């Protein structure tokens, strides 16, 4: 039976891979209990206390070696400043993601016309950035290593954002995929909150501006044949069910994932290491949008009520 996520719950995906369940999104703590570790992503606003408490319980007050960002969308950076300042640690991201974490560029605007559901409809109301976490932000090592995590590699998996990365440990087939793909219908408020049904799905459509790059990233991750995938949204998936569904998504990506319409369906923004340089033109105004925005505002009201309970 589906149910709301237990806010601040923790699930061990591996003995050294812990998933933190937050409203609408996951964060991860990678490392053996009490030993060196790395924080992956930083959740929604108002979740810093939850993350700090769980880190103390799991690692005995030892700060992480770094906070690694799969990408910098608002639902992954909500507690980032407080965490980085409290722990006095660097924030690591792909060079193409740095403009959106150092105040130089906002992300491409979301497209609320794709994906359906309340989350998609609400997306124009989400903070687009630019977010500025300098001077703590650094580029990930060019050799693909992850500081503090021997045996792990970062993989550039763009599409959902220009500098999106996933983390991979080949020795046991563990993949921390970020939002390169997810395991819940994130465009739906109900799906985002309940994380049901569990299935391999495209990256959240309303915030994915480059579908050709997203397809290549899914193909690359499917070729790894992971044993377990821990995603930014949804519950971890394992073994042959994961691999079979990921292969299908990779093989039929344009049919199953790429929107048939929308601002970015067939033209991606032009981006570089300075940020967004050019955007496809916005779509014509939808005469029903005011009513839909009202519904979206009601949905956001529910979200903020859940956050106040944290």
The proportion of strand residues reads 15-25%
Q: What is the CATH superfamily classification?
A: Ribonuclease Z/Hydroxyacylglutathione hydrolase-like
Classified by CATH, the class is Alpha Beta
Distance between the termini: 23 Å
Query: How are the strands of the largest sheet arranged?
Result: 1-2-3-4-5-6-7
Gyration radius, in Å = 18 Å
Class computed from helices, strands and strand pairing: alpha/beta
Counting structural domains, the number is 1
Rounded mean pLDDT score: 91
Low-confidence stretches: none
Structure, explained:
Helix content is 26%, strand content 18%. It is built from 8 helices and 14 strands. It is globular. The chain is an alpha/beta fold. A hairpin with a 2-residue loop joins strand 2 and strand 3 (25-30). It has a single domain, classed as 4-Layer Sandwich (Metallo-beta-lactamase, Chain A), CATH 3.60.15.10. Helix 5 packs antiparallel against helix 6. The mean pLDDT is 91. It has helices at 48-59, 80-87, 118-122, 189-194, 211-224, 239-251, 253-256, 289-308, and strands at 9-14, 17-22, 25-30, 38-40, 67-68, 91-93, 137-139, 153-156, 165-169, 174-178, 228-231, 237-238, 270-272, 275-278.
What are the salient characteristics of this protein?
single chain; 310 residues; alpha/beta; Metallo-beta-lactamase, Chain A; 5-stranded mixed beta sheet; 8 helices; 18% strand; globular
């Amino acid at each position: 039976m589906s149910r709301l996520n237990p806010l601040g719950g923790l699930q061990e995906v591996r003995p050294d891979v812990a998933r933190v369940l937050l409203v609408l999104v996951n964060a991860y703590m990678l490392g053996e209990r009490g030993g060196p570790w790395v924080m992956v992503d930083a959740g929604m606003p108002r979740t810093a206390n939850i993350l700090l408490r769980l880190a103390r319980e799991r690692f005995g007050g030892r700060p992480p070696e770094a906070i690694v960002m799969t990408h910098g969308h608002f639902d992954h950076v909500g507690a980032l400043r407080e965490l980085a300042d409290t722990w006095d640690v660097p924030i690591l991201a792909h060079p193409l993601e740095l403009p959106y974490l150092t105040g130089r560029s906002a992300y491409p605007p979301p497209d609320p016309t794709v994906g359906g559901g309340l989350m998609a409809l609400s997306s124009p109301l989400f903070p687009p950035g630019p977010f500025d976490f300098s001077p703590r932000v650094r580029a990930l090592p060019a050799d693909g290593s992850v500081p503090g995590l021997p045996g792990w590699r970062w993989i550039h998996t763009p599409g959902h954002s220009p500098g999106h990365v996933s983390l991979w440990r080949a020795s046991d087939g563990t993949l921390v995929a970020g939002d390169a793909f997810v395991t819940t219908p994130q465009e739906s408020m109900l799906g985002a909150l309940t994380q049901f049904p569990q299935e391999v799905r495209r990256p959240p459509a309303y915030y994915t501006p480059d579908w050709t790059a997203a397809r290549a990233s899914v193909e690359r991750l499917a070729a790894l044949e992971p044993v377990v995938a821990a995603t930014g949204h949804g519950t971890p998936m394992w073994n042959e069910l994961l691999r079979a569904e990921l292969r299908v998504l990779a093989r039929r990506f344009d049919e199953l994932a790429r929107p048939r319409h929308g601002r970015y369906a067939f033209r991606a923004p032009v981006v570089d290491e300075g940020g967004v340089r050019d955007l496809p033109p916005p779509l014509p105004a939808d005469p029903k949008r005011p009513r839909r925005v009202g519904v979206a505002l009601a949905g956001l009201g529910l979200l903020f009520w859940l956050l106040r309970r944290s």
